[in-house]
Amino acid sequence: MSDTPIRLTLEQLQCERDDRVLFRDVSLTARAGEIWQITGANGAGKTTLLRILVGLHGFYEGQRDWWDDNWRSELLYLGHQPGVREELTPLENLKFTCALGAQSGDPMAALAAVGLRGFEDVPAAHLSAGQKRRVALARLWLERKGVWVLDEPYTAIDQDGVAQLDEQIQKAADAGSLVLYTSHHQVGDGVKRLHLAKGRAEVLA
Amino acid sequence: MTAFRAALSRELLVLWRSPAEIINPLFFFVMVISLFPLAISPKPELLALIAPGVLWVAALLAVMLSLDGLFRRDQESGVLEQLLTSPVMTVVPVTAKLLAHWLLTGLPLVLVSPVLAHMLQLPDRVLGVVMLSLLLGTPALTVIGAIGSALTVGLNRGGILLAVLVLPLYIPVLIFGAGVIRTAVEGGPVPGVLAILGALLALTASLGPLAVAAGLKISSGN
Question: Does A93 reside within a domain?
Answer without folding.
Answer: no
